[in-house]
Design goal:
By secondary structure, the protein is an alpha/beta fold. The protein has two domains: about 100 residues, Aspartate Aminotransferase, domain 1 (Alpha-Beta Complex); about 200 residues, Aspartate Aminotransferase, domain 2 (3-Layer(aba) Sandwich), CATH 3.40.640. It contains ten helices and 13 strands. The strands form four sheets. The chain has a five-stranded mixed beta sheet with strand order 2-8-7-6-5, sandwiched between helices. Strands 9-10-13-12 form a four-stranded antiparallel beta sheet. A two-stranded parallel ribbon has the order 1-11. Helix 2 packs parallel to helix 7. It starts with 20 loop residues before the first strand and ends in a 6-residue tail after the last helix.
């Protein structure tokens, strides 16, 4: 498995999308909001024009949704784009990345030639909260007390948890704090690529000058505005995930031979008693066209770990029944 390979690999060798049940990507299974779908359809003709280079409507929607100032917001072609631009722009000499976590931090830091530490604090630090793939959620106080001159907090899954767990409002109060967030997971639009960063105004100015002037395409901007204004969808998602996450967790805990890391967002990490059993389960799931995220390429994990998104109840039961059987299909 490639060192920086991600989940969501639903395409065949010819680039055609396969008919699979994908638990490997942590996307909201409620699907794209109807409001977003309608907005895309109604505005499709707009692709004949360049997108707004300042993404004014999108930034205004982000500011309203999260109670932020527009001058503290920069938007990106997916949250991952931020890391490539930031590391090449700000160019810190070193970065501390606590592991296991999202591999794109390391990939972006390596591309920028940074010295990376995985076990010793440095002046610059990245924290994913809730963390991918472990699901660990650090409290607001814990985040703010971390010792780093520059602290980047990736809150890409925070919308599954609740606004009270976010540290966005402390940007400008806690020195060196920057918060980055994806909007593709919660709103099920990963194919559009959309994210944003919250930072002091002078950092936002630097980021805007360094990126492609049209880095967020027209349809992504339209989708973002519609999604951020759809609070009914967000509230429905949170009610759903609270119930389904508990069900998923308790079912897994009842299975012998695996360790379950308690989830806080929309995915669960488990550890099998042996790599052999993990491979057996993964292979059995693949025979049923079910994908999960192998974790042997996460730094700090190995072939005994897999991560699974939480999907709809009937889909979850299909997955859980195979895990419960130890990979032995009927």
């Amino acid at each position: 498995m490639d060192r920086f390979e991600h989940g969501g690999r639903v395409y065949d060798a010819d680039g055609r999308r396969r008919d699979v049940l994908d638990f490997s990507a942590n996307i909201n299974p409620l699907g794209m909001p109807t409001s977003v779908r309608d907005a895309l359809i109604n505005n499709l003709g707009g692709v004949e024009h360049y997108p707004d280079p300042d993404a004014r409507a999108l930034k205004a929607a982000i500011a309203q949704r999260y109670s932020l100032d527009v001058e503290n917001i920069a938007v990106f072609n997916g949250a991952a784009e931020f890391f490539y631009i930031y590391f090449n722009l700000i160019a810190p000499t070193d970065i501390f990345i606590p592991t296991p976590t999202f591999s794109e931090y390391e990939r972006a830091a390596t591309a920028a030639g940074l010295r990376i530490s995985f076990d010793a604090p440095a002046d610059n630090m990245i924290v994913c909260n809730p963390n991918n793939p472990t699901g660990r959620l650090r409290s607001v106080d814990e985040i703010l007390s971390l010792k780093a001159a520059r602290l980047i907090v990736d809150e890409s899954f925070i919308d599954f948890v609740g606004d009270e767990q976010s540290v966005k409002k402390f940007v400008g109060q806690r020195d060196g704090l920057i918060v980055v967030q994806s909007l593709t997971k919660i709103f099920a639009i990963p194919g559009l690529r959309l994210g944003f960063a919250v930072a002091p105004a002078d950092v936002i100015t630097q980021l805007d000058r360094a990126k492609d002037v049209w880095n967020v395409n027209y349809l992504a901007q339209i989708a973002g505005v519609a999604a951020l204004n759809d609070l009914d969808y967000l509230n429905r998602t949170r009610r759903w995930i609270e119930v389904e996450r508990r069900y998923f967790y308790e079912r897994l805990r009842s299975i012998d031979g695996i360790e379950v890391f308690e989830p806080t967002a929309n995915f669960v990490l488990i550890k099998f008693e042996s790599e052999r059993r993990a491979r057996t389960v993964i292979d059995a799931l693949a025979e049923e066209n079910i994908l999960v995220r192998r974790c042997d390429n996460f730094r700090g994990l190995n072939g005994r770990f897999i991560r699974m998104a939480i999907r709809l109840r009937a889909e979850n039961d299909r997955l859980l029944n195979i895990i419960d059987s130890g990979g032995r299909l009927n």
